[in-house]
Amino acid sequence: MKRNMILIRILGGWLIGAILLIGCSSEDDGQGISGDNLVRFNSQLANISSVSRSSDILSPIVLTKENWMLGDTIGVYMKYSDVQSFSEANVKNHGYLSTKNNVSTSIFVPASKEDEIYFSDGGVDFMSYYPYKSTIGEKDIYPIDISGQGDNPSKVDLLYATSDGKLSEKRDVSLSFKHQLSKLVLNLKPDLAIQELRDVWPSLIVRASGFYTKADFSLIDKVISNRHEIEDFSGAKTSDGMKVELIMIPQTVGRNMYLKFGLLGKDNELQWNIPEGAVFEAGKQYEYTVSIKMTWVDVFEGEIRLWEGDSKIDDIVWGKSSDTQYGLTKIAGGEYYIGSPEGEGEENEHPRHKVDVGGGWISSYEITNKQYAIFLNEKEVGSSGKNGKGEQLIDIGVSDIKMKYINDKWIVDNPTDDPFKWDNYPVVNVSWYEARAFAQWLGGDLPTEAEWETACRAKSDALFWFGNKSETFNYFLNCKPTSKLIPVNKGVSGVIPVNFLEKNAFKLYNTHGNVYEWCLDAVGRDAMGSAAPYDSKIKVSEKIYHPIRGGSWKVDLEKCRSASRDSYLPEQRADDIGFRVVFPVSNVPILDFKYLEEFLAVSP
């Protein structure tokens, strides 16, 4: 046998350890048995590649913990096999060091004399973890903290292993470590044909917001508990910037949990809201492809894989984005429920039923006076309110329209001696025909009732997207009982700016109250003058009405619920009816998203 000395460099100093290495000569029996009862570990790290598909394969960058490095330290607990289970009373925390560098399997030896473990004739069992901590809390609780992962998530990548049990042979003990947290992988697809994006792409920072960053892990029971401390943390990216990875504490996604994409010199971060109810499970990898433009991101369906292997478990059905893009919000395609259950709401909201929404984008705000004035000028509408084709696009006979025609141009009718402006207030007194003409001019259409209610609810089954608590109403909606309480109205009921109140989980503003919004569908009308129930059929002889949704500042609270429905004739107008625009996925080839984002953006 050969005896060698290993120098292990740790933390800038030199730890000199006399470590007995076994070299098998022709006389060796090949068992790898040391000359005493000292325990060593042959520790394997089951891995999958963490390298971007577009990275340089000759110099790959490993982001999470996929290989052992020289000097890596694992913590080891030992108990005698005749003891029924690991417990705080019968275990001690030992540190063991890796003797190999950048390998998936390494030999681990004691870090110090005090850390040495010896075999017992009665047999022993082992439990091990990484990263090592010299001091473990009461009840053998290992503190998880992922907040500081930054460019090196491997330092927070919690690993765990146990031996097969009842080991008494004097040989290297095999340990196979597995990941105990979750991994989120983003394969980035930036549109580098955009010069502005190409210039700032190296500055990209991806941060997770709203997630738990600390928790407790029981080394005895292998259970994660006491999730706490919500704060932003950044992910690691490959040198080419085409892949980002984040370690996540296993948890269920709640409201206001999202990823932020920040670029140098850009005040507004792009954002992806991970759908509420999604679950990050221990030992699993969630991988997405993310398309990034200058002012928006689109997240495609992903895959769930076991972190320790390359086998796909399933497609991620909750991986469709619901991101806000400077005035545009992505609505994921799928099946959603609309309407009210029996015993709730009005008769015309029944039956509650499932609808198929094709997916697309919807304007985050109600269309504004400023935007509608631009439309009138683009359509060459004259002082009569008609364009050259004789199409009526604004009724000049309505007394309180907030636009006027001056010097052959439509402008917002703002006071000349007051800083107050009507620019960001919703355009009203537009007919269904006029609203639809505007939507089609932009390359979209009016939303269907299914699209509108899906966007309004933002996956909430409550009466309002924010719940049912009356003490919060004036923060979220502008209706008859709350209008005077909204600061911008200064004690007088009325319409408010489109971006004034809180946004819902899909980042839509003013879906409850302020102004009614036109919908595309054709509906009948019941005896009470409202939209007929969903299962009613329109008779050939009756007039065609179109739904208006969301309620307004002039109506009572119940008319502003997510499921509430009313209807008007398409030629009718009112000072509390406006609209917003939807852009179906099928329209994508004809859309200029950069223009739409800029046009639909609303400044504070």
TrEMBL record:
InterPro entries named in the record: CTDL_fold, Mfa-like_1, Mfa-like_1_N, Sulfatase_Mod_Factor_Kinase, SUMF_dom, SUMF_sf
UniProt entry keywords in alphabetical sequence: Kinase, Transferase
EC number: 2.7.11.1
Domain Sulfatase-modifying factor enzyme-like: from-to ranges: 330-582
Span of the signal peptide: none
Molecular functions (GO terms): formylglycine-generating oxidase activity; protein serine/threonine kinase activity
Cited PROSITE patterns: PROKAR_LIPOPROTEIN
Pfam families assigned: FGE-sulfatase, Mfa_like_1
Protein name: Serine/threonine-protein kinase pkn1
